[in-house]
Amino acid sequence: MSLDEERRARAYLLRVAEPPAAALVAFVSERGPIAAAAAVRSGNCPQRVIDETVARRDQERAEADLEAGNGMGARLIIPEDDEWPAWPLLCLEVAQQRGIQSGTAPLALWARGDARLDEAADGAVAIVGARAASVYGEQVAGEFAYGLAERDLTIVSGAAYGIDGAAHRGALAAKGVTVALLGCSLEAGYPAGHVGLLNAIAERGGLVLSEYPPGTPPARHRFLVRNRLIAALSEGTVVVEAGRRSGARNTATTAGALGKIVMAVPGPIGSATSAGCHELIRNSAATLVASVDDVVEIVGKLGTDPPERLQTRRPTDGLDGDALRIHEALERRQGKSPEQIAAESGVSLPRVRAVLPVLEMEGLAERDETGWHQPRKLRATKESA
Amino acid sequence: MSLDEERRARAYLLRVAEPPAAALVAFVSERGPIAAAAAVRSGNCPQRVIDETVARRDQERAEADLEAGNGMGARLIIPEDDEWPAWPLLCLEVAQQRGIQSGTAPLALWARGDARLDEAADGAVAIVGARAASVYGEQVAGEFAYGLAERDLTIVSGAAYGIDGAAHRGALAAKGVTVALLGCSLEAGYPAGHVGLLNAIAERGGLVLSEYPPGTPPARHRFLVRNRLIAALSEGTVVVEAGRRSGARNTATTAGALGKIVMAVPGPIGSATSAGCHELIRNSAATLVASVDDVVEIVGKLGTDPPERLQTRRPTDGLDGDALRIHEALERRQGKSPEQIAAESGVSLPRVRAVLPVLEMEGLAERDETGWHQPRKLRATKESA
Question: How near does any CA of chain B get to the CA of A169, in Å?
């Protein structure tokens, strides 16, 4: 079970199922990618997984996709990689267990750019908003992105015209890290006017990301599906301008459903592009932010004191069921192998393998020559970073 | 004890104490104005009342003040008058009993204009904000006042330059009722540039009001003291523009302390005159309003269905201790005299006399030839109108 095999398996799975494929994702989480891919190919899997994969399961393009990616300087980041942002994305699994529509983790992510994804997602804020933004909105997006990037926060957005583009450009102007999530494949060149911007993001320390295999055109439903990743990869989402019914409001709603912080910028009351922001604020679905400092205060800057609320949390608060069972199977003195932990916790081996590094990142597990064990001294965890 | 005597007594008391004179107001509430005025003159009253009145108690100008008022078409409205807005102002007494600084009822109010004060205050919204307002702020204030006046709501404000003036003018433009509360006497001609506006308010169906006897110049502390009356006479206060520390924020804070609805209008985040509004909204001290409809929805238009919250209130909810005791002393079948009610409730006779009309207005008491009694059928009350 080499990383290469797992990568090929996940490239195949990304190709044959249209995200979000909730049943498939759960199936892969249970069986691991290689066994899951084999089962999908043969049709020897639960009906719901068959439903999600039957239309494309004969498309054996994993090698070709990986080569195509290579050819344009892209890579496929998989959960088995060190740089996989397991902790930020855990909110999706929690949401899925709670039956929330938008809560399906990605099977893998196509990426352009040299930044490590886990590092880029460590202290990230999403800035989203209307494509048909006002001058005011674009200025605010640019200024917020610039100011937050200066404070070493990553700016996550969707590469659309208007607010998204202004946010990416603001981060680049501050020589900060910015991450673009696409609703099409990396080479699709969409939106056309932002091809240069996407190149700049990839070349200047940021990342361009997509769930979609090469050759996938943009589509409205893909932008909505993509929005959950913008929300999940960020600690909070700032809506700069949004109409009453807009994609940006969808991202805000998703972020709220995922337990992330939602913020909105007010504007002149006559402006239609601020109407969605005002509604979010009035309905208490978003907190009003009027400055970069407001955002930093609300998100809580990494490296500064965490808010009191977090300091008093128990380290294992926020762990989902599997993670908690795995954590409880660990002992302080005696190390255990993943196989032992799987047997004792009743959690599948691939899932144990996926969760242990997350627990390690959070300081809830350590490994040495004897195997995995609980750390000698627990430390407080970050909430969702 | 004619109304004339009571009016002279209150004119005297307004002259000799600088509002808010909490001890004096309580003393008058207990003794009635005539006895209280006599006690103040002779110094035969509690020390706290002496402290509030000793500096000016020799100023016997009641007759002269009433004549001066007459000469300029003004009248002194006293709590014993039918048009006294007893119910809106009751929030001040409740606040005073709870020890809130800004909760002191006025002893009387000097008034110019033909409107009945009780009718003007029935369905009123305050619109307040910065004197150094932006073009945006003045436009919003004017539009809100116009739209609310069109819906037969009274616009209450403070006659200052900027937002206040725009609000009064907007109401006048809609041929609506607008009420100006001054921080100086009626004839003081302040602010100088608004003398024409104040005349128009008085002449075109509105009211110009002041606690201050003729000859009182404007002063910063008087504007702050006056703010409680703006808040009390309105069902809700809309802050259109306000700096971080401003008189408008003071009015908003006072309105909140008095249990009134506080609303704030957002604006561009770069605008210093919106910073106070944004703070109020972010701190949940105010609800964001972006349109006239928002205000109407929040305040609840008289004549339309009250919000559910109000429908389920018990009729006597919100009554203060005295009012509740008086209400409980009433019977359904048998009428009682105020003297009987005072004896049974243990509440002083002048207070019983003052509260009974309030209960009557609220449909919680009725009178016929047998005296005061509880109505046969209770109806739901408005919250604080």
Answer: 20
- The interface pTM score, or ipTM, of the predicted complex is 0.73
Region of A71 please: left (phi>0), alpha (psi -120 to 50) or beta. alpha
Q: How many Cα atoms sit within 13 Å of B258 on the Cβ side? A: 33
Of A136, A269, A291, the CB nearest to B266: A269
Tens digit of pLDDT for each residue in A137-181? Answer: 999 999 999 999 999 999 999 999 999 999 999 999 999 999 999
Residue type, A29: S
What number of residues does chain A have? 385
CB contact under 8 A, B267 and A267: yes
* Chain A CB contacts of B275 below 8 Å: 290
- Whether the CB-CB separation of A148 and A167 falls below 8 Å is answered with no
Question: Of B140, B266, B281, which is closest to A267 when you measure between CB atoms?
Answer: B266
Contacts of A278 in chain B (CB under 8 A): 266, 288, 290
Smallest Cβ distance to A281: which of B136, B274, B281? Answer: B281
- Our CA-based measurement puts residue A301 at a distance from the nearest CA of chain B, in whole angstroms, of 19
Give CA A2 to chain center in angstroms. Answer: 24
Structure tokens at B63: 């007759």
Cα–chain-centroid distance for residue A233? Answer: 3
What is d(CA A292, CA A147) in angstroms, rounded to the nearest whole number? 6
Q: Mean pLDDT, consecutive 10-residue segments, chain B of 385 residues?
A: 92 96 94 97 96 95 97 96 94 84 91 96 96 96 98 97 97 98 96 97 98 95 94 97 89 92 96 96 95 93 39 52 80 82 75 79 79 65 34
Q: Is the dihedral of CA A86, A122, A4, A92 positive or negative?
A: positive
Total number of residues shown for chain B: 385
pLDDT digits (tens, 9 = 90+) for B332-375: 778 888 888 877 777 777 778 778 877 887 778 888 878 888 87
Contact B241, B134 (CB under 8 A): yes
Structure tokens at B303: 């004549």
Mutate one of B265, B269, B293 to test the A interface: name it (highest A CB count within 10 A). Answer: B269
Tokens of A291: 């400055």
**CA dihedral for A344, A348, A350, A353, sign (positive or negative):** negative
User: Quick check: B269 and A268 CB within 8 A?
Assistant: no
Give the pair of three-digit tokens for residue B318: 């919100």
pLDDT at A283 over 70: yes
Question: For residue B298, which of B150, B178, B137, B148 has the smallest C-alpha distance?
Answer: B148
The yes-or-no verdict on residue A247 having pLDDT over 90 is: no
Q: Which residue of A lies nearest to B276 if distances are taken between CA atoms? A: A290
Cβ–Cβ under 8 Å, residues B46 and B27 = yes
Q: Do residues A208 and A112 touch, judged by C-beta distance below 8 A?
A: yes
Residues of chain B positioned with their CB less than 8 A from the CB of A268: 136, 267-268
**Interface contact A269-B269, CB threshold 8 A:** no
B82 burial (CB, 10 Å; 0-12 / 13-18 / 19+) is exposed
Q: In this structure, how many other beta carbons lie within 10 angstroms of the beta carbon of residue B362? A: 24
Sorted by where each starts, the structural domains of chain A and their CATH numbers stand as 1-69 (no CATH), 111-304 (3.40.50.450), 311-373 (1.10.10.10)
